[in-house]
Amino acid sequence: MADHQRFELFADLLVRRFPEKKRVYDVAGGMGKLNVALRSRGRECLSFDRRRKHLDVPFAEREFTLDEPCAADLVVGMHADGATRIIVEYAAQHRVPFAVVPCCSDNSMPYKPWMRHLDELARGLGLHTEEVLLPMRGRARTLLGWP
Fold first, then answer.
1. Domain boundaries in the chain?
2. What is the mean pLDDT of the segment spanning 101-129?
3. Disulfide check for 24: which of 20, 45, 91, 133 has CB 3.0–4.6 Å away?
4. pTM of whole model > 0.85?
């Protein structure tokens, strides 16, 4: 079961680790709860998700792709499911940092190999990486990457 504080904890980590990054893309952002948490911490945030029902935050009702023009200086995903790999590839393509908290893979790969795959993918695309554990229940391993 996921921790109800996960969005607040992730937002705190993002602000602490990337203090100069003010424009954030929240990929597969669900209802926009991470968007709310980031905006309350002084960040501009645009959430991407196909869902129609969401909070009153800047929201793009569409799937996030590698073709999305980049107006962000940080790309993130909290339990972004099938969009996690896209976040890493997009960050590398646009030379911006990323942070993901994967909950599952987009290809049925078990969790630990999926985390290794994401780390290897990021490094193979020329990004530096670090893993951080959020203090929460559920999937809490966070992969950070930067050019």
1. 6-146
2. 90
3. 45
4. yes
d(CA 20, CA 108): 36
Long-range contacts, 60-67 (Cβ 8 Å, 24+): 64/25, 64/27, 64/28, 64/90, 66/90, 66/93
- How many degrees, rounded to 5, is the angle at CA 78 between CA 27 and CA 124? 75
Residue 104 is predicted with a pLDDT of 76
CATH code for residues 6-146 = 3.40.50.150
Beta-carbon contacts of 82 under 8 Å, excluding residues fewer than 6 positions away, are: 28, 106
Q: Is the pLDDT of residue 99 over 90?
A: yes
Which residue in this structure is represented by tokens 């935050």?
Answer: 57
Mind listing the pLDDT tens digit for each residue in 26-66? Answer: 999 999 999 999 999 999 999 999 999 999 999 999 999 99
What's the pLDDT at 1? 47
Close Cβ partners of 13 (under 8 Å, ≥ 6 residues apart): 99, 132, 134, 142
Please give the backbone phi and psi of residue 53, each rounded to the nearest 5 degrees, phi first. Answer: -90, 120
